[in-house]
TrEMBL record:
Protein name, UniProt field: Integrator complex subunit 7
Integrator complex subunit 7 N-terminal domain segment(s): 69-443
GO cellular component assignments: integrator complex
Integrator complex subunit 7-like C-terminal domain ranges (all copies): 1033-1198
Protein family according to the UniProt entry: Belongs to the Integrator subunit 7 family.
Gene Ontology terms: biological process: snRNA 3'-end processing
UniProt-listed SUPFAM superfamilies: ARM repeat (SSF48371)
Pfam hit, one: INTS7_C_plants
């Protein structure tokens, strides 16, 4: 547990005093610098002290933090008074300002005798120079919470506001604003003082400017803000000079951003100055308006007013280009924001905007062109959702209007509407591509003038300009999937132009980094964890790389993300990433990929012809694989449409022929990458293969890398990946053994790299025509399960106290558990298959019941696996979308197989003879059904209808309370999973309808068919699997609520255990954007005596089982808490487990306290272990689990 600040208060105070007594100047300065964060922590701790039991555990007395914070403040004041020079006094002021933070006021500063502290500062003010007075005033400002009620300090501030020294006056303004944050009456006094100071003819310009800037800080209450705005408005409309009016407008705009009520008034005030004769005033009014909308402060009644007033100014030739650029930027902020939309604008307004944007595209300013393109894309995205007559109104009069729409007044759509839209999209995308080249040429021409040799590094701000146009095209493709052909066609031309630049002397221009573009429509770009990158780079430098395909030293720059690349290199890679993102977008659009293969093929050929070095990149590998998938799935889709729905076979997109074609394609490229010693690109490609079920290629790459990187720091990871992938490809080859010949043949073939890497395989269908049944393969599957366990064990020696491999080991553990269940189910299916002709009457009744109990147990364990995947996803809140979707699908598949296993025997007469006491605990068919029903995507009504046929009349829809993610149906693998679900429901319903009263085999035959098709689907891993880093979680520390108890965590028999809790969460605030609004914790214990054992910091399977059970109980408690429907006590008990709940308010420090009562009054004397689990809920109501990073406390029940 991290020490609370109060535990270090005495040491910090001593360090400060010892440091300030030193004769060495550097030591005194170091002591002051170290005091700032410590003082801030102590003041915060004094305001909200730790509970008494926690303080007692550290030997901290009540109020100790406050006392030593006061001591440190007094010591700083003494140093400020006795300092020999002004430099040391300035250091003290800097320390207080650093401790105070942004607003300048040290929050929580309290002193028992304020006058004693303030008197030491006042001595410097009374006897010092003007600079000393200014420093003293700033100290008063930092100590505003101490000086707030001091009449002497207020008097000093007011008198200093009239001083002759500008330095003293500005310091007094700062001190006044600090106290005004806390006092409403003083704010009104200071406001009048500021007005006189600004309007005085004797005030210096810098003083007037400081007073005007201070207006935005007079925000104590809403009434004060209203009064400040009223006074400021009067002064702006008065006789102030323009330079002061401009500053006052900006200060008032900052003030108004804190109050929505004044938004309309400030906008009206700014509009008055748009007609001002002074150009600087017009410019400042526009900048103020841009600031107000940039802060996402939207007052909806104002939006249309601003929109209508600013729109004509774009074409105002009297305004300079800079002003019109500001106007366009404001319109872009309003129009392209999430807060506004088509509901706030009519067709006429949008038509005017489109005309204005069109004129802006002709300006020479690239900044205006970029803004105009963003608005243009937004308009056309709105047109996608708008009515046809509104589209005609918007486009009327612009060059983007449909040719057939000119003069058309009715609402009848022309026959060539799609062709016209394609022409418009072509025009827009051409503009975007031209804009990218203009940016490149501008930078090259500008930078070439600065240097004559060497490389030129561009800032990240310039890099973002290159990313923005690609985002615009991707947004357009999201709304208009047909635009992908146009976009990729234009990008082919862009690649050719970039290659020409690269061949000239302009190639010297370089950028250091181009970040991947992202939109809400596209999945995140592949980015491995920094830990992996650094680890791989370290290993690369430490050893000699040798492999069968390529031999030689690895270029360490391959792993250096800061290596300078030419500008054309980065833009070409950005083009490839854009194409890959287009594929991701189109994966979610039904029927949009049939022409995608040809478009990608053209881009790949263009890249290969104009820049063959890009052929050896991961981006090119991913693009080629996308083309391969697009071609194959398009063929399968056409074949499925011709075949129609089949009750005998599910319509899969990812058929065995698709799998083998992708394996061969991936194998060819990765061979080339390894041959060229592109090991990092090969590693990234193998990660892609694991995410798409291409285990043969992945295992080959991991084998080569494991041989090459044999250092201790990285070998365990590659060894685990090798064992895992080898097991998965062996499982695949159990189903399709004939594929091995084709794969090994391709591995041994030395292909020409110039050949078509994504060519179709003509003989794969014949090779994979027959699928080997899994029945009788139990021994081999057991061996695969053992290999998966070895992959898990390979990571064990390298796990740290932060659980670096926790996710990976948990995921592998779930996979091995599934394989164990699979072998048990196959054993029963094999037994019944061999006695298929034997009637159930002739079989042993005990044997049948034993098989039923085994199947029911397997169903229960599969349901547990589904919940485990749910918890695995919920426990990693920094997980990407692909990984979340992958885990949701795995949970769905486990739930589906659990349902099929349970309902394959429930209609058998033998099942009704099974004693309920022999069934697994908490098992019921209703819970299994409810679990699967909760995971089905809402729009899929067919599955829901089929599942409802299994529901009994007395089915309780609320029987199962759990947190399960619905599996979407956007990807091919998800669609295949739903297809399998349809297939399974059909078979089971048919079996139930045809089953005799005593028939059990009728249910096992469909289960065997379902399981066979289940295993034919590819097994994939989430992207998050390759992010090796300390996991997110929490530590919980427990203290007896009685500080006087020094015997540890003990309680007398017959009494409840009162605990004070300290929850400390790890890595949550640093690595995620999740901001919890509430944290919850469950404590549980059982009457079983605790067995002493060594605490483990490694992954343990039994811990995850405890987490799932506690997580389920915690979810039920949270639902009651959030719905305010709690009618039960926070502490609950049953025959097996005693539980208690606690809640925490989040804090930036990551440490909070609470208390709970654990009812252990019925426990006999002895020692017991407390188990716990925690979670958090964010502002959107999303639930996230916090992994327990330490064990719960052990308490004793004994007589005193």
């Amino acid at each position: 547990m991290e020490r609370i600040p109060a535990a270090s208060a005495m040491d910090w105070s001593i360090d400060l005093d010892r440091g300030l007594r030193s004769r060495h100047h550097a030591t005194r300065v170091g002591a002051l610098d170290a005091a700032a964060p410590r003082l801030r922590q102590l003041c915060a701790c004094a305001a909200s002290p730790a509970p008494a039991p926690v303080a007692s555990a550290y030997g901290v007395l009540p109020g100790e933090a406050r006392v030593f914070a006061e001591t440190m403040l007094l010591r700083l004041a003494t140093e400020f008074r006795t300092a020999a020079d002004g430099a040391m006094r300035a250091r003290v002021v800097r320390t207080l300002l650093a401790a105070a933070g942004g607003r300048g006021v040290l929050v929580g500063a309290r002193v028992a005798e304020p006058e004693q502290l303030l008197r030491r500062v006042k001595v410097v003010y009374d006897t010092g120079s003007a600079r000393d007075k200014a420093l003293a005033l700033r100290v008063f400002g930092c100590l505003a919470e101490v000086a707030e009620d001091s009449v002497h300090v207020r008097s000093l501030i007011l008198s200093s506001l009239g001083a002759s020294s500008a330095l003293e006056v500005k310091a007094a303004i700062f001190a006044a604003c600090c106290i005004c944050h806390l006092s409403e009456d003083f704010s009104r006094i200071i406001l009048e003082t500021f007005r006189r100071l600004i309007c005085s003819g004797t005030s210096e310009p810098q003083v007037i400017m400081a007073a005007i800037k201070a207006f935005s800080n007079l925000d104590c209450t809403l009434a004060v803000i209203h009064r400040v705005h009223e006074v400021g408005k009067q002064m702006v409309l008065g006789s102030l000079e323009d330079v002061f009016k401009s500053e006052m407008l900006y200060s008032l705009s900052r003030l108004v951003s804190k109050s929505m009520i004044l938004f309309q008034h400030q906008v009206d005030l700014l509009f008055l100055f748009l007609n001002h004769d002074s150009a600087p005033m017009k410019s400042m009014a526009l900048k103020c308006m841009c600031f107000m909308f940039h802060r996402n402060t939207y007052h909806f009644p104002v939006i249309r007013t601003v929109f209508g007033r600013l729109l004509p100014l774009i074409d105002d030739e009297d305004l300079s280009l800079e002003y019109r650029s500001d106007v366009l930027r404001i319109l872009q902020k309003i129009f392209c924001s999430k807060a506004s939309g088509i509901h706030h604008f009519n067709g006429s307004e949008l038509s005017k905007l489109l005309l204005a944007v069109e004129s802006s595209l002709d300006y020479a300013s690239l900044e205006m062109q970029g803004i105009a393109l963003e608005i243009l894309v937004e308009v056309f995205c709105i047109l996608k959702q708008a009515r046809l007559d509104l589209n005609m109104t918007i486009l009327k009069g612009s060059s983007f209007a449909y040719a057939e729409y000119q003069g058309v007044t009715n609402s009848t759509p022309p026959a060539s509407e799609d062709n016209d839209m394609d022409r418009l999209l072509y025009k827009i995308i051409t503009m975007v591509a031209s804009y990218i080249m203009s940016l490149v040429n501008q930078v090259i021409s500008r930078e070439k003038k600065k240097v004559t040799s060497g490389t030129i590094c561009m800032s990240s701000k310039l890099d973002k300009k290159y990313i923005a146009p690609f985002r615009l095209m991707l947004k357009l493709v999201t709304c208009y999937p047909t635009a992908v052909t146009v976009a990729l066609g234009k990008l082919r031309g862009l690649v050719k132009e970039l290659s020409q630049i690269n061949g000239s002397d302009c190639s010297e221009v370089a950028v250091t980094f181009v970040e991947p573009f992202q939109t809400s429509a596209a999945l995140e770009e592949l980015r491995a964890s920094n830990g992996n990158v650094e680890l791989l780079a370290t290993s690369a430098k430490a050893c000699l790389i040798e492999s069968d395909i390529g031999k030689g030293n690895l270029d360490s720059s391959e792993f250096d993300h800061k290596t300078e690349k030419s500008i054309t290199h980065d833009l070409t890679l950005c083009t490839l990433k854009f194409a890959n993102s287009c594929y991701t977008v189109l994966c979610k659009t039904p029927g949009a990929r049939c022409n995608f293969h040809d478009s990608i093929k053209g881009l790949i050929e263009c890249v290969n012809q104009n820049g063959s070095q890009y052929w050896s990149t991961y981006e090119a590998f991913q693009l080629i694989m996308s083309a391969c998938i697009a071609r194959d799935t398009c063929k399968i889709r056409h074949a499925n449409k011709k075949a129609g729905d089949s009750k005998e076979e599910p319509n899969f997109f990812l058929t065995p022929s698709v799998w083998i074609a992708q394996e061969l394609c991936a194998l060819r490229i990765t061979k080339m990458l390894i041959k060229k010693q592109k090991y990092w690109e090969a590693y990234r490609s193998s990660m892609y293969c694991c995410r798409n079920g291409l285990w043969f290629t992945a295992s080959i790459v991991f084998r080569k890398l494991a041989d090459a990187f044999s250092s201790d720091s990285f070998s365990c990871w590659l060894k685990s990946l090798l064992l895992f992938s080898a097991g998965e490809i062996e499982m695949k080859l159990l189903l399709f053994p004939s594929a091995l010949i084709k794969l090994v043949g391709e591995l041994k073939t030395d292909n020409d790299l110039s050949e078509d890497l994504y060519c179709a395989e003509s003989d794969t269908d014949s090779i994979l025509s027959g699928c080997q049944e899994l029945l009788g393969q139990r021994a081999k599957i057991t061996g695969i399960c053992e290999r998966t366990c070895l992959a898990n064990d390979a990571l064990e020696p390298n796990g740290s106290s932060d659980y670096d491999f926790f996710f990976q080991r948990w995921f592998l553990s779930l996979r091995s558990s599934f394989l164990e269940i699979l072998t048990e189910i196959l054993g029963i299916l094999s037994t019944n298959s061999s006695s298929y002709e034997v009637r159930e009457d002739h079989l042993s009744r005990e044997l049948i019941q034993g098989q039923i109990l085994t199947l029911v147990s397997c169903s229960s364990r599969l349901s547990y696996l589904a919940k485990s995947y749910d918890l695995l996803a919920a426990s990693h809140m920094d997980m990407d979308r692909h990984s979340s979707s992958c885990l949701a699908r795995l949970a769905f598949m486990c739930s589906l197989l659990s349902f099929c296993t349970a309902y394959s025997v429930d209609f058998s007469r033998a099942y009704s003879d099974v004693e309920p006491g022999k069934l697994p605990k908490r098992f019921s068919h209703a819970s299994v059904l409810q679990d699967l029903l909760g995971r089905v995507d809402g729009p899929d009504r067919q599955i829901v209808s089929q599942l409802q046929q299994f529901m009994p009349a007395s089915f309780d829809a609320e029987v199962c309370l759990q947190s399960s993610g619905r599996m979407n149906s956007s990807g091919d693998l998800e669609k295949d999973s739903y297809s399998l679900c349809h297939f399974a429901m059909t078979l089971l319903l048919c079996a139930r309808g045809n089953a005799k009263a005593d028939g059990m085999t009728n249910g096992l035959q469909p289960l065997s068919s379902i399981l066979q098709k289940f295993m034919e689907l590819p097994f994939v891993v989430p992207k998050y699997f390759f992010r090796v880093r300390p996991c997110l979680g929490a530590e919980l520390y427990m203290f007896v609520s009685s500080p006087a108890d020094t015997n540890g965590v003990t309680v007398e028999p017959g009494f409840q255990l009162s605990l004070t809790l300290c929850l400390q969460w790890k890595h949550v605030l640093e690595r995620t954007t999740v901001r919890p609004v509430k944290l919850y914790c469950i404590l549980a214990t059982t009457p079983c005596l605790h067995e002493a054992r060594t605490r483990s910091k490694q992954f343990e399977h039994h811990k995850t089982a405890e987490m799932i059970e506690l997580n389920s109980k915690l979810l039920q408690y949270i639902r009651r808490d959030l719905t305010k429907g709690r009618d039960e006590k926070d502490s609950q008990s049953d025959l097996e487990m005693v539980t208690s709940f606690a809640s925490f308010e989040p804090a930036d420090s990551g440490q909070r306290f609470s208390a709970c009562l654990l009812d252990v009054s019925s426990f006999p004397e002895g020692s017991y272990q407390i188990k716990w689990h925690a979670c958090c809920v964010n502002e959107k109501g999303s639930y996230f689990s916090l992994l327990p990073l330490n064990d719960g406390a052990v308490f004793s029940v004994r007589k005193s």
